[in-house]
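Deliverable D5.2: sample structural annotation.
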Amino acid sequence: MSRYRGPRFKKIRRLGALPGLTNKRPRAGSDLRNQSRSGKRSQYRIRLEEKQKLRFHYGITERQLLKYVRIARKTKGSTGKVLLQLLEMRLDNIIFRLGMAPTIPGARQLVNHRHILVNDRIVDIPSYRCKPEDTIMSKDEQKSKALIQNSLDSSPREELPKHLTLQPFPYKGLVNQIIDSKWFGLKINELLVVEYYSRQT
């Protein structure tokens, strides 16, 4: 299983804000990245932490991330930007970004339990790669609709990235285009992640 089941605050204290992992925040005044304990960080550690940030935010395994890096290398364009596009266009992340689930693990659970339709067909693979003109909505059952409605009601409404549209009643998400780099959901230096893996191969 790719789902991280350990303590989430421990990860965000070490790596910084990971909105996909948890919607909770540490108490006011607690330093997310306690540099006094960590001392001077090596170049390897800096790259490792950026890679870990990507892994835990999107909730994927080391093997999955390495696979995405290899796909990105073979694709035309900047490897780092393509890598982030691949991760952002995953179905579980799209559901999270639309506000239909509070976190990416929550979105993955919706998909795994067959609550989600993509283009009017059930998709139960969280890593499904969404494409422009895809429509995402809940199954036409009371429980499925209630789960999504509850998330939308309880989550603070943030500005949707330009590549997504959310239509109300019934809630339907639309993928307008491939995500633009300025709308990525995580503050990260993707070049450090690419450099980390270039040393591994």
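Annotation notes: The chain has two domains: 8-86+187-198, 90-178. Residues 38 and 167 are 46 Å apart (CA to CA).
The annotation will be released with the project's public dataset once the embargo ends.
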